[in-house]
Amino acid sequence: MRQQLLDILEIGPPSLDNFVPDNNEELLYTLKNLVAGNQQDRFYYLWGSTGCGKSHLLQAIATIFLEQQLNTFYIDCRQIDKLNIDSNIDCLVIDNVEWLDPAAQIKLFNLYNQVRENTASIFLASGSLPPAQLDIRQDLATRLGWGLVYQVHELTDEKKIEVIQDYAARCGFELPLEICSYLLTHKQRDLSSLIKLVNALDQLSLTRKRPVTLPLLRELL
């Protein structure tokens, strides 16, 4: 397992290859089949807590389909409150649907139906809760639940510590447990943010010519 984590973990844009699956193996397998054209299902909904990796997966899927020259739209509803999409859609990816206002929910309902009518189009969405528990229009929630629905399980703290310590070891330094615990308590807890902080800590250690310690981490933060 240790070598496997080292092989897949890299700093870079979200991809299916640098997603650590842990308890999400079935979901990752399904999405890899989707982008390879081996999946018959066209509608997917991912849900889970902040930092579980659902946005990572959706961004990775959108990137792959764009590279395949498909007309793909990725929209993070936390940043964009209007869904102004008038062209043909090969793949529609809607992240954090619970942030949509009532007008945008109607627009997404219509876009969903548009995608459904095109038998070659694909729809993926994410939210913090299962479709039936979202505080959105009932007809939209119903449609989000029509396809495959997956909960994205967040890595346990123990697994996160294992991953970031393995990353540090590959960079050539030891990451003490007290630093890992401090990171999990004081900063963003998603794995991508943790890896970036470990990398920044390594760079600061090299620049200052000081060992990686908790005081050095506090200076970084």
Automatic annotation (TrEMBL):
Record-linked NCBIfam families: DnaA_homol_Hda (TIGR03420)
One GO term (biological process): negative regulation of DNA-templated DNA replication initiation
A Pfam family of this chain: Hda_lid
Domain Chromosomal replication initiator protein DnaA ATPAse: 16-70, 88-150
Alphabetized GO MF terms: DNA replication origin binding
InterPro entries: DnaA_dom (IPR013317), Hda (IPR017788), Hda_lid (IPR055199), P-loop_NTPase (IPR027417)
Organism classification: Bacteria, Pseudomonadati, Pseudomonadota, Betaproteobacteria, Nitrosomonadales
Entry's Gene Ontology cellular component terms: plasma membrane
Species, as recorded: Nitrosomonas stercoris
The protein, known as: DnaA regulatory inactivator Hda
Hda lid domain segment(s): 157-221
